[in-house]
Write a structure and sequence with these properties.
Length: 104
């Protein structure tokens, strides 16, 4: 994660049933997060604009302070395409997105 609002790399492919440990380093100067866009996360995102300082309590997200590393562990059980993002206002609009393709 960086201050140019990008994830590097911004895509990956996994197999159904695979558990991935995302180890994410924030190389920027501002707090950042990575969130898998699950249904629960999307429901949370609908509320976030009205509460900008609201903490993310979703198990599909991790917030990382500047110059720190965080971890998010997730098991992908369904075939399909999933997005990762930061759901703070403005981040999706500038394409701070990544994709995960779950394929057999």
């Amino acid at each position: 994660m960086n201050d140019q609002m990008r994830f590097l790399p911004d895509w990956m492919t996994v197999k159904p049933g695979e558990t991935i440990r995302f180890v994410v380093k924030n190389v920027g100067e501002h707090e950042d997060e990575i969130m898998l866009l699950t249904k629960k996360a999307m429901d949370h995102a609908k509320v976030t604009p009205q509460h900008p300082g609201m903490e993310d309590d979703a198990d599909s997200a991790v917030t990382v302070p500047p110059s720190k590393t965080g971890e998010l562990v997730w098991q992908f059980i369904r075939v399909g395409n999933f997005m990762i993002s930061r759901l703070m206002p403005g981040h999706v609009e500038v394409r701070m997105l990544g994709s995960i393709s779950v394929r057999r």
